[in-house]
Amino acid sequence: MAWLPVVGLVAGFLIIYQWDVTVPNYLASYLSLGTLAGLDSIFGGIRAGIEGKFHDDIFLSGFAVNTLLAAALAWLGDQIGVNLFLAAVVVLGGRVFLNLSLIRRYWLTKAAFSKKDKIS
Amino acid sequence: MRNKSWVLQITIMSVVLGMLLAVSLKTQQKVSTEGGVPTRLPELVSAYRETKRQNKVLNEQVETLLQKITDYEKQLSSGTTAESILNRELQDAKMLAGTTSVQGPGIIVTLKDSTQKDEADLPAYDLIVHDLDIRNFISELVLAGAEAISVNDQRVTSRTSIRCIGPVIQVNSVEVVPPYEIKAIGDPKTLEGALKMPQGLVELFPDPDMVKIEQSDNIVIKPFTGNKPFKWAKPVEQ
Hints:
The complex is a heterodimer. Chain A has one domain. Helix content of chain A is about 80%, strand content about 0%. Chain A has helices at about 5-20, 30-50, 55-80, 85-120. In chain A, helix 2 runs antiparallel to helix 3 (about 55-80) and helix 2 (about 30-50) runs parallel beside helix 4. Chain A is globular and about 60 Å long. By secondary structure, chain B is an alpha+beta fold. Chain B has 2 domains: about 40-100; about 100-225, Protein of unknown function DUF881 (Alpha-Beta Plaits, 2-Layer Sandwich). Chain B has helices at about 1-35, 40-75, 80-95, 130-145, 190-195, 200-205, and strands at about 100-110, 150, 155, 160-165, 170, 175, 180-185, 210-220. In chain B, a hairpin with a 2-residue loop joins strand 5 (about 170) and strand 6 (about 175). In chain B, helix 2 (about 40-75) runs antiparallel to helix 3. The radius of gyration of chain B is 28 Å and the shape is elongated. The chains are: A mainly alpha, B alpha+beta. The interface between A and B is large, with 45 and 32 residues.
């Protein structure tokens, strides 16, 4: 079951990649930030699912709101001359790495336990 | 069941994320192929303006300094006849080299792209001014006795190149933009006649609005302000 999200990711990517869908140049950096926020939401969701704390409403609203809000905040920052873009990249990037490490830890622990079970 | 439902939901959102990634990637590819720098554009614009302004100020400084040199040379030579003869020769050489401002009667030729539409009998290539056109005009003016020529205040010297680099024309390796203003000092009537003769350069343009010729009693032509030292050529030693 764990490979399903990866398949979904690749499928979504391939569907759009065939078409020549782009946004205007000045929106490019905001779109990238929105994508990073989406990545953060996905990893956050996986972590919550593993920990048994997954709530579908929180996950779905979080994905939509985080993505739009990250882009909107970066845009606002550019308007008032504060580089919120960098702040968002640092925070979101940090969270992605944190969630990744927790997911990895969970899987390693699980693998270690199952090994023990086999031995005993 | 609940355990599996979160994987399914994440899968659905992963599809959306994949789409976002694809659009992002496509956009970044587009940006990099167009060479645009979307987030840094305002800074580049202000840096460009500042550099342009500095360039203008420095160019004016070069001109005043060149004028000062000429003044000093005149002062130095006010003594003996030998010195004044030397100075006269020096000033002639400088005029020939184009490193001093000159003035006199002449004509101002203005070349600009046509505003007419591209049609079958008027191909787009003929409706814009090319580097070739400017070279032809300069050659014709020199032949008709022009003694000093500049294109958009870039002095034409013996080492001037006129060449199009992509969409822009460079004179003395400096970009010039339309309308191209060619100033030439010489006998105004002869110069204008040379350009307007039957089957001449002016007649070659499909749209008569592309060329404007003005005669003037006093034209000032600025000096060549670049720096081009001789690296290979040396006077022959006898």
